[in-house]
Structure formats: structure tokens, C-alpha cells
Design a protein that fits this description.
By secondary structure, this protein is mostly helical. The chain has 3 helices and 2 strands. A hairpin with an 8-residue loop joins strand 1 and strand 2. The protein is elongated and about 90 Å long.
């Protein structure tokens, strides 16, 4: 399907206020597209715009947006790290449990926290067995 649109004349706009209005519309549209691309597409995107209407460059995302994004990322990574530590600990205690069941000697290398976690893992496995049997 072919889109039919109006023709756009390219050229220098003599009227300064009209030129500024056009620039603001295009800038807003482009920043919206970059924002959608970075949030929906999962792509890191940025832009630096220089113009005569503003002092200095316009940076997207701004420093505040970047700080907020970095803080959110650290929080998410911290949560993932805690989950991975928990899963790793459960697997480690499960392995210790299976070693005990196979008759391996544990040379008193388990401290109170290890024994507590081992007890929790054993209770979890027993609960799973009860659920499957009953």
C-alpha cells in the first residue's frame, strides 16, 4: 500500500519565528522517537543537538535521566544478585545433603549457618516429596 502525502519544500526559512517553531516540532518528535526506541526496543540511544536558538547543546537523555536510569539498573542488578546467591546457596546445600545421603564424611566444616540452611533445604525437599506422594 502506497502512502500519499503532501510534498515538503526543502529550503531555508527566512522567517526566524517560523524556523524556530519548525525546529522545536522536529526536536520534540525526534526526542520522542528516541525515547520510544530506548524504552520499547531495549536499545541504548542518545542524541546531542546543536542549534542557534539555545545556548549550548541539547543532550538526550539528560544527566538526570541517566542518573535515574543507572540507579534503576543498579537496583535491578542488586535484586538479581540476591536471587542468584539464594539459588546458589540452595544448590550448594542440596549437594551437601546428597553427599550426606551417599555416606560421605563431612569433616566438621559446616558452621551454624550452614547447618541451618541445610535443615531448611532438607525440609523443602521433604515437603516436595510429600506433595508428590499425597
Amino acid at each position: 500500500m502506497r502512502r500519499i502525502g503532501r510534498r515538503v519544500r526543502l529550503g531555508f526559512m527566512v522567517n526566524k519565528s517560523q524556523r524556530k517553531r519548525s525546529y522545536e516540532k522536529r526536536k520534540k518528535s525526534m526526542l520522542n522517537m528516541l525515547n520510544e526506541l530506548s524504552t520499547q526496543g531495549g536499545v541504548e540511544a542518545g542524541a546531542i543537538l546543536y542549534n542557534r536558538f539555545e545556548e549550548g547543546p541539547v543532550v538526550f537523555p539528560s544527566v538526570e535521566d541517566m542518573e535515574e536510569s543507572i540507579e534503576e539498573r543498579f537496583e535491578k542488578l542488586g535484586t538479581q544478585l540476591l536471587n542468584l546467591k539464594r539459588v546458589n546457596r540452595e544448590m550448594e546445600m542440596g549437594l551437601v545433603m546428597y553427599q550426606i545421603l551417599q555416606g560421605y564424611q563431612l569433616n566438621n566444616s559446616l558452621n551454624f549457618i550452614d547447618l541451618n540452611d541445610l535443615g531448611w533445604v532438607i525440609n523443602t525437599y521433604l515437603a516436595e516429596i510429600d506433595n508428590k506422594l499425597g
